[in-house]
Amino acid sequence: MAQIKSHRDLLVWQKGMNLVTAIYALTKQFPVEERYGLIQQATRASVGVPANLAEGHSRGTRRDYAHYVSIARGSLMELETYVMIAERLGFAERTAAAPVLEQITEIGRMLTALRQRLVER
């Protein structure tokens, strides 16, 4: 296993960055009038996932790191809700939303496992 020297080495951070890209692509389909509504909320929440992982990784204690992992998970669940709302409102087709929701589920499991490891030690 490779040593983690930076937040950029974390697979969950890398997947979080991919999720940001997927959310920006998905929200391009949304109506223009949602620019300052659902689009802004979803993109902000998506960016919060890798950003909080990066900030938490740079903190000095495991407790702080675990706290930021929890914040990242909160942003992820917020994002999941926005994607589901967009689907219900017809802004995103099920075929476009499903892979994003799968990414969210996978990252959620990874964040839960990471936090668990941080608080157990």
Helix proportion: over 70%
CATH class: Mainly Alpha
CATH superfamily: 23S rRNA-intervening sequence
- Overall tally of domains: 1
Estimated structural class: mainly alpha
Largest sheet: none
Strand content: under 5%
pLDDT < 50 stretches:
none
Reading the helices and strands in chain order gives HHHH
Average of per-residue pLDDT values: 95
How many beta-strand segments? 0
Question: With helices defined by DSSP (H or I, 4 residues minimum), what is the helix count?
Answer: 4
Stated plainly, the CATH topology is called: de novo design (two linked rop proteins)
- Spatial extent as radius of gyration: 15 Å
Oligomer: single chain
What is the straight-line distance between the termini?
19 Å
State the shape: elongated
Second CATH tier, the architecture: Up-down Bundle
Structural write-up:
With 121 residues, the chain is mainly alpha-helical. It has one domain: 23S rRNA-intervening sequence (de novo design (two linked rop proteins), Up-down Bundle), CATH 1.20.1440.60. It has four helices and no strands. It has helices at 11-27, 38-58, 62-88, 94-120. Helix 1 runs antiparallel to helix 4 (94-120), helix 2 (38-58) packs antiparallel against helix 3 (62-88) and helix 3 runs antiparallel to helix 4 (94-120). The model has no long low-confidence stretch (mean pLDDT 95).
